# Entry
Amino acid sequence: MRFILIAALICFSAYVKAQTQPFRISTKHLTNNVYVHISYGLPDGKSPFPANGLYIVTKAGIILIDTPWDEDQTQQLMDTLQKRYHQKIVLCIATHFHSDRTAGLDMLKKNGVKTYASKLTNTLAKKGGNKQAEFTFNRDTVFNVGGVSIQTYYPGEGHTKDNIVVWLPQTRVLFGGCLIKSLETNSKGFTDDGNIAEWPNSVERVGKRFKNIKYVIPGHQGWQGDTMQLRHTINIAKSK
Ligand SMILES: [Zn+2]
# Structure
């Protein structure tokens, strides 16, 4: 009896360990040369919560949209991509100043990656004690890497005051980041740094700006429903 109990305890602790730190990143193919990277954090201090970023494979190296949620997982992603493609990450764009977007910036910098964020994002990151990008842009910017176009767009305040989205015109992928909520949640999430009143207007601007959106990736959880997530986010932001 005691033996069974001990065996059960060992199994249980192994299970718990698999669910907590150190976290393991994963990746999912989205379309063409575009993939989602998924890392984990502990926003409530106990339950692991997933965060989405993108990586895009080009003939001139790999582009990252947002870093994994900590440095260990950033190292895992660098190792995975090196092994899988024999290519380096050459560029990373962070879509707002929170650590689920920026935690790996220093580590990427150290590894020769050109890291970018908006001027506002870097200012807020500095204030909040978060990692900052090496380079900044002041207005919406188009990056061209290895034949792939990456467009940044600042639609206004929402989840945070600095949240931007990233549009990939060739594959019609909209990376919404934390401005956009997954259909899996009805919660506004962490809004202390945001502007809930402006949030719906900012999402409306995104919907007007980009036509024929095929994929929408939110900052957290699943991305089923694609453009339905825009309306869903507006409903959440307007809810009591
Ligand atoms: Zn977030």
